Amino acid sequence: MRRILTAATLSLLASPALAAGDPAKGENEFKKCRSCHMIESDDGTAIQKGGKTGPNLYGVIGRPVAGTDFDYGESIKAVGATGLIWTEEELATYVANPAEWLKTKLDDPAAKSKMSFKLAKGGEDVAAYLASVGPAPAAATDASTEAPAATAPANNVAP
């Protein structure tokens, strides 16, 4: 039993962990993305001017995949139809090889991506940068400020 626990512990330690991205590095790395993508807030403020070949990336982290009115390709729309939400990890994996990500997510070797660019390194930094320039997350509801729930009378007889 001890050998099994030791082996399991060693295998966990040997597994590469997805490192957290650096938003400052991601801002610099985003220069590669600007030929196709912009970051423009909901009120129209340009955070990063760029192309319109790809969707606006403001608020992409936390948004459903293919979740804007952009003209997405069929494969990414199919992934979006599953309800998948962009996380920093998913986006970093996607930008490394969009076509392979789609093929894996859809279990379809014929899946195609309209995004031909691959960001072999720095995807986690770009994802962290995009998370840092998106809208503030919705405030969590504090249970102590909620109105108390209505309770039935103790004898379970309606008034």
TrEMBL record:
Keywords: Heme, Iron, Metal-binding, Signal
Region (Disordered): 140-159
Organism (species): Paragemmobacter aquarius
InterPro entries: Cyt_c-like_dom, Cyt_c-like_dom_sf
Taxonomic lineage of the native organism: Bacteria, Pseudomonadati, Pseudomonadota, Alphaproteobacteria, Rhodobacterales
Protein name stated in the entry: Cytochrome C
GO MF entries: electron transfer activity; heme binding; metal ion binding
Gene3D superfamilies: Cytochrome c-like domain
Chain ranges of the Cytochrome c domain: 21-134
Signal peptide: 1-19
SUPFAM superfamilies: Cytochrome c
